[in-house]
Specification:
9 helices; mainly alpha
């Protein structure tokens, strides 16, 4: 279980598109939306880890065209979101204590989270195929204990990131801090999108 926990944590801790989006929501203090997003990220990871351990990675490996389709849609989405973040960076606004968070609806936040999670081809390559292949090096029973450790790592990380980001809220009372965060998000999203296109 500890090996699964460690392996999963090393893959998800890197600040990618999904983590960058969750970080922004956490800083904004989205309340009920934040709980929903954290659960979507963690449960999605659990499903993908379970699929990998169950052997779905072999199916994905046998159908590279499916990954290419995900790459195309993922690249379009990431670059579009990156451009929006860059535009926000041009007109940053600080948060005050009385501020209500940005006006995106629950539906928009959920759809964005699902897209950042499921339109990312790396999630299939890393979480399903890589973690799945490592888990399946263990015995029939032990691989599921390994998977449980990986799932616990996902839940731990997403809750820590989402709710730990609130500690940064005083810093983000300054518009300049939002400009830096949105520039970072734009850079991450656009770079990942371009990388996906190059990967084709």
């Amino acid at each position: 279980m500890l090996l699964g926990f460690g392996a999963s944590l090393t893959l998800i801790v890197a600040i990618g598109a999904q983590n960058a989006y969750l970080l922004r929501l956490g800083v904004e203090g989205r309340g009920r939306m934040l709980v929903t997003v954290v659960l979507i990220c963690a449960i999605s990871d659990a499903v993908l880890i379970g699929a990998g351990v169950a052997g779905i990675g072999a199916v994905i490996e046998a159908a590279p065209a499916a990954i290419d389709v995900v790459r195309i849609f993922g690249a379009i989405f990431l670059i579009s979101y990156g451009v929006m973040a860059a535009r926000r960076a041009l007109r940053p606004e600080g948060l005050t204590i009385e501020d209500s968070p940005a006006s995106a609806s629950m539906k928009a936040v959920v759809l964005t989270t699902l897209a950042l999670t499921w339109l990312n081809p790396h999630v299939y390559l890393d979480t399903v195929m890589l973690l799945g292949s490592i888990a399946n090096q263990h015995g029939e029973t032990d691989r599921w204990w390994w998977a449980l450790g990986a799932v616990i790592a996902s839940f731990t990380w997403f809750f820590l990131l989402g709710y730990g980001a609130r500690l940064l809220k005083p810093l983000f009372a300054k518009p300049a801090a939002w400009r830096v965060l949105d520039c970072l998000i734009a850079l991450i999203m656009i770079t990942l999108g371009v990388t996906l296109i190059i990967g084709l």
